[in-house]
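Contributing: when you submit paired examples, paste them exactly as shown. First protein:
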Amino acid sequence: MKIPLPGKKVLPYLLHGFTWGAIILLTTYFFISGNRSDTNALWHNYRNLILYAVIFYFNYLVIIPKLFFGNHKLWYFTAALTLIIILTLTLNFSFRRQPPRPDFNPGFNQEQPMRPVPRIQSQRQGMPPSEWPRPPMNLPVYNFFITALLITGISLGLRFSDRYIEQEKQHKEVEREQLNTELAFLKNQINPHFFFNTLNNIYSLVQTNVNDGQKAILQLSKLMRYLLYETDKEIVPISREIDFMKIYIELMRLRLTPKIDLEVSFPETYPDVNISPLLFLPFIENAFKHGISNRTLSFIHIEMDVRQDEISFHSTNSLTVNNSKLGEESGIGLENVRKRLRLLYPNNHELKISKEDSAFNVLLNIHLESTPVND
């Protein structure tokens, strides 16, 4: 349970109210079920609950943030113990101020008078009630002290839990901002070399085949529109992502030679599930960047399968002398997609990247039992 600041959600308030309300109701129920007629004992129990609440919230809201988290742990334990001792002595003093009553029937954690034995009963004969021998009162004081220590430990544990959750939330926010920055860099990284080469290819294509050149320009404009307007969203339909990858591959195909074997397999029919954008592009870009050679035979094979609960992506490309270190120096693209997958699909993805003697393989499975994390 977390004590919220003003303006935040009211659920933590409700949880605290429900917890203390339940404790009060249980206290009242146990008192009534014991057929006790002394209502003063019930009010004594309520008083103890108020003192416990004071210990809990003063510890939770004041001395833990100020002292314990302020690197003054010795002062914290001193202050917490002092608070408990003061309230315990106050409780003990209130017990001693109360006159004994022969019909006193206390509730739990209160003064527990012993049933008179014949010897004590004989001592009471001829004496006014105010002078009767008092029963031992150490038990309720000890109970209060031990319970107060327990409540102090609970408040400390809850405060630690709240702080850990807050730190994790801040860490995720920082990581998300960093990933957004890297994603923007990734989109910008696509632009220079890709658009330069593509425009050169389109220029050459226009000189030989005007119609094909015009189609290529149209595809390039669609690609740019997707990068500019669609990738800022948290999730996009997989159909748009597939269309984007198809356009990207077709434009990259313009500069391939007959020595390069390019095989692409996307599903013809599939459920249009949602996915975070640009998760697969780094692998395709990496394959075209490192998997082709104009001097020797090379290949790029890309395939994808889309089901209602899972998306599978597999790519493999050849390794030549020039890209033998692929995977060791894969750049920001692959590292970016690793981080994004860990954040967006922490327990719902499997990414396997392997390098063989003649091929670089990527296998990515994304399970769609739950939507990407958006908090």
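Second protein:
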Amino acid sequence: MIRKLLQYVWRSMGRHKARSTLTVLGIATAMFLFCFIEGLQKGVSEATESNATANQLIVFQQSRFCPATSKLPDRYAGIIAKLPDVVSVLPIKIYVNNCRASLDSVTFRGVPPESLTDGRNPVTLVSGSIDAFKKKSDGALVGSRLAARRNLKVGDRYQIGNVAVGVTGIFTSEVPGDDNMALVNLEYLQRAAGNDNLGHVTEFDVVLKDPSRAEQLCREIDGLFQADEVPTTTKTHKAFITSATGDLLGLVRFTRWLGFLCVGVVLSLTANTVYVMVQDRIKEHAVLQTLGFTGRHLFFMVLVESVFLSLIGGVVGTGAAALALQFGHFGLGAEGVQIAFVLAPVVIGVGLLVSIATGLLAGIVPAIQAACNPIVDSLRRI
């Protein structure tokens, strides 16, 4: 019996192709936006909560508001490295094409070439060679997401501003966002940024033995340079990401409300479609009741049609969002910090579950109406 009812529901949807198609497209559009926003929220969560950076501190110049304004002397690295519980110190020069929040931010990250093999800056090569990077002063290892976004491959030349590099490798990293930037020889980037940058870096990445001492070491490091040439501000990696992208994260949090609004649009659209459908089929339902269909059968058919419409739209919208996130390699950047739009199974799962739940909520009232409508009142309309 259930199979026959499902077949009837499917044929009923096909009788009003234009209405069903427009409803599905409307639902798909809203669910595309919802899943896209959830992908951004997932990217923010990974950037701020990653276990890969739980024991990492970022040291930068006090009152820094952009990478270009932070100029720390190289010698600070040796002083920091002598502190207890410090495993390694990595000097980094940051060069960005846009310091403000941008969907197309490109970051060059200058590092000592030896740091790629001594464990301070581990990366996994997809193609190319670290040896080629070390031998070529203007060589660059490009993150896989950046390479895909800018269509770069080994052997290409790439330039932002007055800094031009040759791609010697493509890499991935377990640190969220790192695969959306390029690693460049530290000295080359210092010289390219101007002679006054020689001997200075943007920040130091400090790895600790014991993450529980992070706050204490932040105070110790800043205390060492409080009266020095350039005072510092030290933060945990999570705090640094949150601080550097404060305005951006505020915007991201706002987009969650936009996602909820999309769900509300889906709910109202589906509910309106199902309500109109029930009104149009009062005569049909009356005939079905005379043939032996009960109110329970009508309730089931109306509710299932609502869920079908919502689920089909959800599958289309979620699938489109998954493809866009997978192949679009979208990301947000601010002050050299990269946040990627993440395609995760949970995002797809949430999108489909929201579609089903929306179909149930939108169809429940019209289904009750169809089930409870007296057969006599329905027959009067024939």
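If you have annotations for the second protein, write them as plain sentences, like these:
The chain has a mean pLDDT of 80.
The chain has 13 helices and 14 strands.
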